[in-house]
Amino acid sequence: MNYETIRLRHDNGILWLTLHRPATLNAFTVQMAGELIHAFESASDDDAVRVVIVTGEGKAFCAGMDLGSGGNVFGLDESLSPTLADMEQRLGDPDIANGVRDTGGRVALAIMACKKPVIGAVNGAAVGIGSTMLLSMDVRLASDQARFGFVFGRVGIAPEACSTWLLPRIVGVSQALEWFYRADVFDAQEALRGGLLRAVVPAAGLRAEAERIARGFISGRSAVSAALTRQMVYAGLGTHERDQAHRLESLAVFYTSQKDGREGVAAFRERREPRFTSTPSKDMPPFYPW
Amino acid sequence: MNYETIRLRHDNGILWLTLHRPATLNAFTVQMAGELIHAFESASDDDAVRVVIVTGEGKAFCAGMDLGSGGNVFGLDESLSPTLADMEQRLGDPDIANGVRDTGGRVALAIMACKKPVIGAVNGAAVGIGSTMLLSMDVRLASDQARFGFVFGRVGIAPEACSTWLLPRIVGVSQALEWFYRADVFDAQEALRGGLLRAVVPAAGLRAEAERIARGFISGRSAVSAALTRQMVYAGLGTHERDQAHRLESLAVFYTSQKDGREGVAAFRERREPRFTSTPSKDMPPFYPW
Amino acid sequence: MNYETIRLRHDNGILWLTLHRPATLNAFTVQMAGELIHAFESASDDDAVRVVIVTGEGKAFCAGMDLGSGGNVFGLDESLSPTLADMEQRLGDPDIANGVRDTGGRVALAIMACKKPVIGAVNGAAVGIGSTMLLSMDVRLASDQARFGFVFGRVGIAPEACSTWLLPRIVGVSQALEWFYRADVFDAQEALRGGLLRAVVPAAGLRAEAERIARGFISGRSAVSAALTRQMVYAGLGTHERDQAHRLESLAVFYTSQKDGREGVAAFRERREPRFTSTPSKDMPPFYPW
Questions:
Q1: DSSP letters along C14-64, please?
Q2: Which residues, numbered 54 to 83 in chain B, qualify as contacts with chain C under a Cβ-Cβ cut-off of 8 Å?
Q3: CATH fold of the domain at A6-218
């Protein structure tokens, strides 16, 4: 795919994914949504990608939905009257998929479905979908120049990108509701205090810090273990019970113990670094996806 | 309704709801439960109410269940032998509704069902139901004179008001269990450190701080966006999955983008404050309640 | 049962459970799993046990799975090809129970099923299952000598002991994933900052601090209230909704108010300490287990 709104760069196991519409502060469009979904689906099955780092070109991360386009700026087909039954029963029908489904949500689901760890490196303003797309990334770092805003209430719409589900799980229900109700823009220090970020670093050191964390996820670590961990953790945030976690983990340990686990145990006994060879493209255990 | 245990005051979008039995430290009764439920149901559909602030008259917030009444002080009908099947299949039957259902839980469910943001301003002792009724409010502030206590284990009963479900989601499972097991009274600073509170302020400044936060939720913000956000966040804490969040959010954005969202986008383009006109009483989208 | 890998000591309501294979840093074995499950099941029905405190003998807490044994070190039957349907439909069949089920998960489920509060007192290295078995304990304390590590990705296997479900609920999804991906060993201060621990204390004071907390859960507190609280909180972390919490709590208050609750209210009125007599072995209400 020939991307026009994002740029990809591979660096020794790390995929740098840069939002790239700098003339509009990397404002989000329906095209960008499609390109992000494609890029995360490709990264999920590309064994050369061990970690994805998402950042923005120029001074912003993503200034939000591009409100400059004509018609329904969210790309929605106003001639429809969709019901919850439509969403449950025919989510894939073209009129629903293209005219009703929230594009930010489609991106968030694609990021959560990716088998690779995802790090958000927020270099500047991250507003609206710029903030909510971060919630499906595993680790969020920000430059001290970053700003955030769940501004939907000021635009007159509801929050999106699965944020009503994810934000309370990340920062707690009280902080989530306050940020939604306030709908204003706040700085990186408040985002850090509120639990949205792992760390705030000087702007000049942001990429190096993101890479440092990513490298710690790769060297001597099993890519299949990371993929199963990520999928089990996000599944476990949803409806399933601890008994279901036990069932999945039992199978995950059962199968991994006979592949990378065999090498890991041998390396431990021989006091050497393991050399793992299982790959997410070919060696996911037979119960995946469940 | 002519309230005897609470007082209401409307102030330009804010409903001040004051627990008002000062002679008994605002101790909770079955009558107070009924009046609170009625007040929150009324506020939910009253477009003049944008935010509800709950506080207590005098030096206490709510000293807990009034243990001074005769018979079963919790208002329960001891002649019954209810089962979980009774609770699932005939929760509305008069003998179950009046003789078995936890009154604190009925209040908590009514607060969660309200379409308006709710702020708790804890002016003094909040013990037992005084503490647990706070959990279904969105933002909790306290005076430095406030005290808290999940004292059920010392009264010999189980926790109520949906607190076994809400408290772990607010402060984490470990802190929740410790406070339940200890069953003692602790001060506002411990409540703040434990994550129960957003802030502790000097007693003299409590109401002003609550109002300051409430005003930030109102001016230039869409009331329908806030209502949908609140209902989606509390629904999302329960059983439904991220896919369900995506379905609901898609519909919520779809419909709001054609009403307040149209004004919000226009205001953004014209660099002016939006003038939202959708109301929770008349303009909730057709998929609500789901 | 004659335990070989753990030691039990009763002290006036507290059961001290010590992991006891000091020659191997208390490394975890299939035998230890069986003994832990038996000990927690016994403690659950032993009214002399009000709180369980788990610690390790010698300088370690638990150094992880004993990787020194022959064959599949995790005790798994590699001749099988289990599916998720097997796990859902015949979890109790001997070949699945003994050859596929994760032993750490069986221990975690037994700890969560126990009717007594459980405190982890981490005296030294807690690695792999040494870290994950802590997650089903209610309160975690550590010596400043303790270390932690969710090292599964470095061993080449997936996380276990329900940790993909529990760890995100305790420390948040972002911190959980980072620790899983890093798969390294970290110190007690990082564990404290990350939310895994309630407190870090000097090594010499660890047992005294654990006992101090445990005593606060016992004196003048209802054992049945604590048992119901624990079971409702862990059930509530799973699939059930706030409505289900309300149903359970209603029944829990209904029945406890007529036993220990009657004494608690009388003691309150008479301004004296309550003398609770209900026991988890005989006085759990009729809807338990649900």
A1: EEEEEE--GGGTT-B-HHHHHHHHHHHHHHHH-TT-SEEEEEESTT-SB--
A2: 67-68, 72-74, 76, 78, 80-83
A3: 2-enoyl-CoA Hydratase; Chain A, domain 1 (3.90.226)
